[in-house]
Amino acid sequence: MKYIKVNKLTVLLAFLGTVLIGCSDDLDQPELNNNFAGGTDFSQTDDMIFSLIGVYQSVADRGWEQPLVVATRGDDVNAAGDQQGLKNQDRYVYDNSFFGSRTLWETYYGDIIGAHTGMEQIERYMEFADDEGIALGNQYIAEAKVLRAVLLFQLSQVYGSVFIPTSSNLNDFADVTSVPSKDEVMQHISDQMDEAIPFLLDLRPNERTDLPGGVTKYTALMIKAEANQELKNYQAVADATGEIIASGKFSLFPDYYELFKTPGKLSDENLFEFQYSDFGNGEGDRVSHLYAPYGPNSWNPEVDGSSNGWGFFEPSLKYIEFMLDRGETDRLETSVFFSQKGIDSLIATTPYTAETLPSFVSPITRDGDENTSTVRSIFSSGKHYLPTNQLIPGRTAYGSNKNNIVFRYSETLLMHAEALVQGANNSVMTADEAVNQVRARANMAPLSGVTLDQIVDEKYAELSMEWGKRFFDMVRLGRYDELSFDGRTFTEDKAFVTYHQDQIDEFPILGEIAN
């Protein structure tokens, strides 16, 4: 069997956006099971890669509301705009009729089942493959396991107890009598990564030439670390993060501001990102995500005709004041896209004045885009903002061509530091060294003898507005007071979002679980 090389990212994404649209439609119908490919000739083993690419496509193809359901809780962000269900969730009032909760469950499970379908197809190809093809098939199956784990991990963070599919056969869910706990799901994910790691490439994702940015051994190690962090198994966290660090393959992107923009795509910092592309063309096919919910609902863009956002996702005043009090510069400028109304609110409610605020606290970014929003959100997420001068000419959608980073090396370092402070052992790097690498990139002074509180604060500064990481940290650590802010009251029983009524109707066992 020949090793199929997809040499350019644009070629890969073109497959995702065009050739595999029909394939992904089928992947959304797991009941087809082994008949998915119809008349597919599985003896054509060179085609095995297309089953894997179909899994990549479906996992990256997230609706706009799904990342917001995952991310919009915690003291780093506020839900804004006209989505009442999202605003209720942000205040820990869970509505079992909120469409976002329903689509998160349905689409994530559809894509998890699709990953199993892809793995089963690959196994059928392997029946006809030579030794080289079998080795490649094992790698592809391992990659699909990792992609599946990304979705299952986020589902369990949001809902707690969730089902664990083990095949594409929907009959497995008939008459279920129990639902695995969050701890059981996290242990399952950790075990799955142990199964996958031996078959994965020992490369940084951006070193891959077949599928640039695709899953590697280090992606799986990061997910294993994340799952064990949720389990509070800090030695396993230190072991997994230590292996990533010891590889010497990863480094922090030097410019924090540009990390979340075009220059940061497939950087040496990124362990996994959802990839999107306009293929360098101002018209025609594109693989995209709808970033409008994160943008200001009115602005004066540097590039005329560039579309504004919807104002649904707003950095919190608490976070902004926390960052100002720390003397943060690069990370605050990057994370928050200020409006003048937001700045006025900041001056009115904090000790800061127009004279004492840093000069970068401005409604106009360094790239010349001006946030003029006065309703819905008065701050926007800078991590989801793409300067209009980085848009490909002809593309006007907010954030078009922007990737969405899920796991990055700075989080690896901070998780490693926390694990050591929590009692784990690992000689690859001290907690001080790990934290100070992250702080140095942010132009912050080094620390000595770092404490858990300092690491928690560092994660707040570094990772806010990213996939709800701050909220999940506070829940794990039992720091509920941090989540009780601005009129909110958080209690332990609010850790998980309520199942949607449609899911309860389909699986009555869910109604018996006290979320």
From TrEMBL:
Tagged with keyword NADP: no
Pfam families in the cross-refs: SusD-like_3, SusD_RagB
Domain RagB/SusD: 303-482
Domain SusD-like N-terminal: 53-200
Compartments reported by the entry: Cell outer membrane
Record keywords: Cell outer membrane, Membrane, Signal
InterPro entries (alphabetical): SusD-like_N (IPR033985), SusD_RagB_dom (IPR012944), TPR-like_helical_dom_sf (IPR011990)
Chief localization: membrane
Residues making up the signal peptide according to the UniProt record: 1-24
Similarity comment: Belongs to the SusD family.
Protein name per its UniProtKB record: Starch-binding associating with outer membrane
